[in-house]
Amino acid sequence: MINDGLRIALLSALPITELRGAIPIALTIYKMPAFSAYIFAVLGNIVPAIFLLLFLKPFSEYLRQWYYFDIFFEWLFKRTRRNTEEKFEKYGALFLLFFVAIPLPLTGAWTGSAAAFIFGIRFWYAFPTIVGGVMIAGVIVTLASLGVISFI
After folding, report:
1. Model confidence over 69-103: pLDDT tens digits?
2. Which listed site, 41, 57, 69, 102, has its alpha carbon 20 to 30 Å from 109?
3. SS3 at position 66
4. Which 3 state secondary structure label does DSSP give 43?
5. Per-residue pLDDT, 34
6. In this structure, is residue 56 part of a structural domain?
7. Quick check: is 150 in a domain?
8. Are the C-beta atoms of residues 48 and 73 closer than 8 Å to each other?
9. DSSP code at position 108
10. Looking at the domain assignment, is residue 94 inside a domain?
Protein backbone atom coordinates (compact mmCIF):
# COMPACT_ATOMS: atom_id res chain seq x y z
CA MET A 1 0.00 0.00 0.00
CA ILE A 2 2.81 2.45 0.84
CA ASN A 3 4.58 1.77 -2.48
CA ASP A 4 1.34 2.42 -4.34
CA GLY A 5 0.84 5.56 -2.28
CA LEU A 6 4.30 6.82 -3.22
CA ARG A 7 3.58 6.10 -6.88
CA ILE A 8 0.39 8.12 -6.65
CA ALA A 9 2.16 10.96 -4.84
CA LEU A 10 4.86 11.06 -7.52
CA LEU A 11 2.27 10.92 -10.31
CA SER A 12 0.38 13.73 -8.60
CA ALA A 13 3.56 15.80 -8.41
CA LEU A 14 3.97 15.80 -12.19
CA PRO A 15 2.76 18.93 -14.00
CA ILE A 16 0.77 17.05 -16.64
CA THR A 17 -1.23 14.66 -14.46
CA GLU A 18 -1.28 16.36 -11.06
CA LEU A 19 -4.01 14.93 -8.86
CA ARG A 20 -6.55 15.09 -11.68
CA GLY A 21 -4.87 12.05 -13.20
CA ALA A 22 -3.43 10.47 -10.07
CA ILE A 23 -6.70 9.95 -8.17
CA PRO A 24 -8.52 8.06 -10.94
CA ILE A 25 -5.42 5.87 -11.43
CA ALA A 26 -5.21 5.21 -7.69
CA LEU A 27 -8.86 4.19 -7.55
CA THR A 28 -8.98 2.09 -10.71
CA ILE A 29 -5.54 0.58 -11.27
CA TYR A 30 -4.22 0.36 -7.72
CA LYS A 31 -7.65 -0.20 -6.12
CA MET A 32 -6.75 2.14 -3.27
CA PRO A 33 -9.39 3.27 -0.79
CA ALA A 34 -10.74 6.72 -1.72
CA PHE A 35 -9.36 8.43 1.39
CA SER A 36 -5.85 7.02 0.86
CA ALA A 37 -5.92 7.99 -2.81
CA TYR A 38 -7.00 11.51 -1.85
CA ILE A 39 -4.32 11.95 0.83
CA PHE A 40 -1.42 10.67 -1.28
CA ALA A 41 -2.51 12.68 -4.32
CA VAL A 42 -3.03 15.91 -2.38
CA LEU A 43 0.31 15.62 -0.57
CA GLY A 44 2.07 14.77 -3.82
CA ASN A 45 0.50 17.74 -5.56
CA ILE A 46 1.44 20.18 -2.78
CA VAL A 47 5.17 19.36 -2.69
CA PRO A 48 6.05 20.90 -6.09
CA ALA A 49 4.10 24.04 -5.19
CA ILE A 50 6.46 24.66 -2.27
CA PHE A 51 9.52 24.53 -4.50
CA LEU A 52 7.88 26.51 -7.30
CA LEU A 53 6.80 29.29 -4.96
CA LEU A 54 10.23 29.49 -3.36
CA PHE A 55 12.44 29.16 -6.43
CA LEU A 56 10.64 30.51 -9.53
CA LYS A 57 11.62 34.09 -8.77
CA PRO A 58 15.35 33.46 -8.15
CA PHE A 59 15.49 31.15 -11.16
CA SER A 60 13.84 33.71 -13.46
CA GLU A 61 16.13 36.45 -12.14
CA TYR A 62 19.11 34.25 -12.94
CA LEU A 63 17.81 33.61 -16.48
CA ARG A 64 17.07 37.29 -17.08
CA GLN A 65 20.74 38.08 -17.25
CA TRP A 66 20.60 36.76 -20.83
CA TYR A 67 18.94 38.97 -23.40
CA TYR A 68 16.40 36.52 -24.87
CA PHE A 69 15.23 35.28 -21.49
CA ASP A 70 14.84 38.89 -20.37
CA ILE A 71 12.68 39.62 -23.42
CA PHE A 72 10.60 36.49 -22.75
CA PHE A 73 9.95 37.29 -19.09
CA GLU A 74 9.14 40.91 -19.89
CA TRP A 75 6.62 39.75 -22.51
CA LEU A 76 5.18 37.13 -20.13
CA PHE A 77 4.69 39.56 -17.26
CA LYS A 78 3.11 42.27 -19.42
CA ARG A 79 0.80 39.89 -21.27
CA THR A 80 -0.37 37.99 -18.20
CA ARG A 81 -0.90 41.05 -16.07
CA ARG A 82 -2.75 42.81 -18.88
CA ASN A 83 -5.13 39.87 -19.38
CA THR A 84 -5.84 38.94 -15.75
CA GLU A 85 -4.66 41.66 -13.38
CA GLU A 86 -8.11 43.25 -13.14
CA LYS A 87 -9.70 39.95 -12.13
CA PHE A 88 -6.96 39.28 -9.62
CA GLU A 89 -7.18 42.74 -8.06
CA LYS A 90 -10.95 42.39 -7.78
CA TYR A 91 -11.08 38.87 -6.33
CA GLY A 92 -7.59 38.42 -4.82
CA ALA A 93 -6.96 35.12 -3.08
CA LEU A 94 -10.40 33.84 -4.01
CA PHE A 95 -9.39 34.01 -7.69
CA LEU A 96 -6.23 31.95 -7.04
CA LEU A 97 -8.13 29.47 -4.84
CA PHE A 98 -10.80 28.78 -7.46
CA PHE A 99 -8.26 28.80 -10.27
CA VAL A 100 -6.38 25.93 -8.60
CA ALA A 101 -9.56 24.18 -7.40
CA ILE A 102 -11.23 23.88 -10.82
CA PRO A 103 -10.29 20.39 -12.05
CA LEU A 104 -9.57 21.36 -15.64
CA PRO A 105 -6.34 21.10 -17.62
CA LEU A 106 -3.84 23.88 -16.88
CA THR A 107 -5.52 25.00 -13.65
CA GLY A 108 -3.68 23.10 -10.93
CA ALA A 109 -0.98 23.76 -8.35
CA TRP A 110 1.76 24.17 -10.96
CA THR A 111 -0.10 26.87 -12.87
CA GLY A 112 -1.36 28.46 -9.66
CA SER A 113 2.23 28.68 -8.39
CA ALA A 114 3.32 30.23 -11.67
CA ALA A 115 0.47 32.74 -11.44
CA ALA A 116 1.46 33.61 -7.88
CA PHE A 117 5.02 34.21 -9.11
CA ILE A 118 3.90 36.35 -12.04
CA PHE A 119 1.67 38.50 -9.84
CA GLY A 120 4.31 38.77 -7.13
CA ILE A 121 2.26 37.09 -4.41
CA ARG A 122 4.33 36.28 -1.34
CA PHE A 123 4.85 32.65 -0.31
CA TRP A 124 2.86 32.81 2.94
CA TYR A 125 -0.10 34.32 1.13
CA ALA A 126 -0.02 32.08 -1.96
CA PHE A 127 0.81 28.73 -0.34
CA PRO A 128 -2.29 28.31 1.87
CA THR A 129 -4.48 29.44 -1.01
CA ILE A 130 -2.94 26.90 -3.36
CA VAL A 131 -3.20 24.15 -0.72
CA GLY A 132 -6.89 24.97 -0.28
CA GLY A 133 -7.42 24.82 -4.03
CA VAL A 134 -5.61 21.48 -4.27
CA MET A 135 -7.74 20.06 -1.45
CA ILE A 136 -10.98 21.21 -3.11
CA ALA A 137 -9.86 19.83 -6.49
CA GLY A 138 -8.99 16.54 -4.78
CA VAL A 139 -12.48 16.25 -3.33
CA ILE A 140 -14.08 17.05 -6.69
CA VAL A 141 -11.89 14.58 -8.62
CA THR A 142 -12.37 11.85 -6.00
CA LEU A 143 -16.16 12.24 -6.01
CA ALA A 144 -16.22 12.34 -9.81
CA SER A 145 -14.02 9.23 -10.02
CA LEU A 146 -16.35 7.41 -7.65
CA GLY A 147 -19.36 8.43 -9.73
CA VAL A 148 -20.89 10.51 -6.94
CA ILE A 149 -20.86 13.62 -9.13
CA SER A 150 -20.67 13.93 -12.88
CA PHE A 151 -19.73 16.66 -15.30
CA ILE A 152 -21.84 17.41 -18.34
Report:
1. 889 888 887 877 676 666 666 677 788 999 999 98
2. 69
3. coil
4. helix
5. 97
6. yes
7. no
8. no
9. S
10. yes
Q: What is the pLDDT of residue 77?
A: 79
**Which amino acid is present at 123?**
F
Domain, as residue range, for 83: 2-145
**Does residue 14 sit in helix, strand or coil?**
coil
Element (H, E) at 96: helix 93-101
Distance of alpha carbon 141 from alpha carbon 150, whole angstroms? 10
Residues 73, 150: Cα–Cα separation, whole Å = 39
In DSSP notation, 24-40 reads HHHHHTS---HHHHHHH
Decide if 152 is inside a domain.
no
pTM listed for this prediction: 0.86
Are 44 and 108 in contact by the 8 Å Cβ rule? The answer is no
Q: How many Cβ atoms are within 10 Å of 56's Cβ, its own excluded?
A: 15
Highest mean pLDDT among 21-35, 52-66, 78-92, 109-123: 21-35
Rounded CA-CA distance 19/33 in Å is 15
When the pLDDT of each residue in the chain is averaged and rounded to a whole number, the result is 89
Q: What is the DSSP letter of 119?
A: T
Kindly list the distances between the CA atom of residue 65 and the CA atoms of 43, 57, 71, 80, 93, in Å, as whole numbers in the listed order: 35, 13, 10, 21, 31
